[in-house]
Write a structure and sequence with these properties.
The chain has about 475 residues and is α+β, with helices and mostly antiparallel strands. It is built from twelve helices and 18 strands. The protein has a four-stranded mixed beta sheet. Strands 8-7-9-10 form a four-stranded antiparallel beta sheet. The chain has a four-stranded antiparallel beta sheet with strand order 14-13-15-16, with helices on one face. β9 and β10 form a beta hairpin. α1 crosses α9 and α8 crosses α10.
Length: about 475
């Protein structure tokens, strides 16, 4: 009885711990951005009414030197209320001071305060990038190769004659270095396929040292209910050496001494480029013994290669014969140490590629494929769940801070770039914008922003595992 109760409780505390880490890191990004506005406003003599961590009804508040500091009940960022910058009642609640009664602020001061938020986000991104440079970012074997590891039967790639082991050199004329993975998207096969407009796309491959080009017709799987529209794919997986995550006790794999971390290099003398290739081989052998070439790593510089014979059989509670192995999805992972400037540049490139794809008239990538706070926190949660996940979370924080800074600089009212644009208009006109017009613009755009966030959050929620019974 003790064992039955203990495991769920340990799992519960693990989930709670990861959730708290996600909340802490996500909110740190937002609060630092708002602190940039806060310190700049105080330095330039603007009135600061509130500095709020989290939204919603205050759980705690205290007024110090005329500023109300509060902790809200909705753990999703925060805000700083600066009524002289622009009326923001739609997002921050009714202001204590009447905008018209406050002393005027120069356009330069407004620009400085507006720029300070994105500047703080970029500084935080650079700080995270320096940490990543030192501790490293985990990169799996499959993230840095354009060699095909598995071709889905009857899929577009299979119909075009692509094979496991083929190296993809370009897609639709764009050179590629990997099939999928996180990072810059323009050099990946999956991104170039998804953003291509043509019904058929040319793919250049290298096979046995010779280059050839094939035409493929990508497919998009049917939408799952109300979920996001699936992007086009050619249905291949990148090559990776199968790596054991767990061996079922008393299974055939356990009986021959296989263990967690072992790499399966070949089966019956055939090199394996994907765990799925071994699963298919086991089906074709009709439960006969298979000879596996295994590499066991003791550390980064020491390993041993040996051969075992193992035959699948029915395990308890299962209907299909297995050898009793669970695979590590990421496979063999190494640490890379990109310098901070390359990380910032890659993050800017990723954001530009995404926005360009969304704005392109006939692109398959649309607004519904973007993510809001729920989707971002879900990504953080999945990163923290993985081995060395804190390193991945630090790297993702670099990307997210750069996105937060640059998106806020877009010249749209409500965003920091909108405040800058309005201040420039005021500078040119040599007089402040009429308060009622400014309030109408700000509130109208605020409602549009709220509607946009609700739209992307709707799809973020549909992506949550429990929405699919997982």
């Amino acid at each position: 009885m003790t064992l039955v109760v203990c495991f769920p409780m340990n799992h519960f505390f693990s989930v709670v711990g990861i959730f708290l880490e996600v909340i802490l890191l996500f909110n740190l990004l937002i609060v630092v951005h708002e602190l940039g506005h806060f310190f700049a406003a105080r330095a330039r003599g603007l009135v600061v009414e509130k500095f709020a961590v989290w939204f919603g009804k205050p759980l705690w508040s205290k007024t110090i030197n005329g500023v109300e500091y509060r902790l809200g009940c909705i753990p999703a960022g925060g805000f700083v209320a600066i009524p002289q910058l622009a009326p923001m009642e739609a997002l921050e609640g009714k202001a204590e001071n009447n905008y018209a009664d406050l002393p005027p602020v120069s356009p330069l001061d407004k620009i400085i305060v507006a720029v300070a938020g994105p500047a703080a986000s970029l500084l935080l991104a650079f700080a995270f990038a320096c940490i990543v440079w030192g501790v490293g970012r985990p990169v799996s074997e499959s993230e840095k190769t354009s060699i095909i590891g598995y071709v889905v039967p009857d899929g577009p790639a299979a119909k075009a004659g692509l094979l496991a082991g083929d190296k993809i050199l370009s897609v639709n004329g764009h050179r590629v270095t990997r099939i999928t993975g996180i990072g810059r998207m323009s050099d990946s096969v999956s991104w170039n396929v998804a953003t291509s407009d043509a019904p058929q796309i040319p793919i250049c491959i290298e096979r046995n040292g010779l280059e050839q080009t094939v035409l493929l017709e990508p497919v998009a799987q049917a939408r799952r209910g109300w979920g996001r529209k699936n992007l086009r794919q050619i249905q291949i997986l990148p090559a990776q050496t199968p790596m054991i995550a767990k061996v079922v006790p008393k299974s055939p794999a356990a009986e021959v001494g296989l263990g967690s971390g072992d790499l399966i290099l070949a089966a019956n003398g055939q090199k394996l480029l994907s765990p799925l290739a071994l699963a298919e081989l086991l089906k074709t052998t009709q439960n006969q013994a298979v000879t596996l070439t295994v590499r066991r790593r003791f550390n980064q510089d020491s390993s041993q290669t040996f051969i075992v014979k193992v035959a699948p059989r029915l395990l308890a509670g299962e209907t299909t014969p297995r050898i009793g192995i669970y695979w590590d999805e990421r496979g063999l992972t190494t640490l890379v140490h990109p310098n901070p400037f390359s990380q910032i540049a890659a993050s800017i490139g990723t954001m530009w590629e995404t926005i360009s794809a969304v704005l392109r008239p006939h692109s398959q990538v649309t607004v519904q494929h973007l993510s809001g706070p729920v989707g971002i926190m879900r990504v953080y949660y999945m990163l923290f769940e993985s081995p060395m996940g804190w390193r991945l979370a630090l790297w993702f924080s670099v990307v997210l801070n750069v996105n937060l800074a640059l998106l806020n600089l877009l010249p749209l009212p409500v965003l920091d770039g909108g405040h800058i644009a309005l201040a420039c208009c005021e500078w040119v006109a040599r007089r402040p914008l009429e308060h009622r017009v400014l309030e109408w613009i700000q509130n109208g755009c605020a409602f549009i922003l709220i509607a946009f966030m609700a739209y992307v959050t709707f799809f973020d929620i549909l992506d949550l595992p429990w929405m699919h019974g997982k």
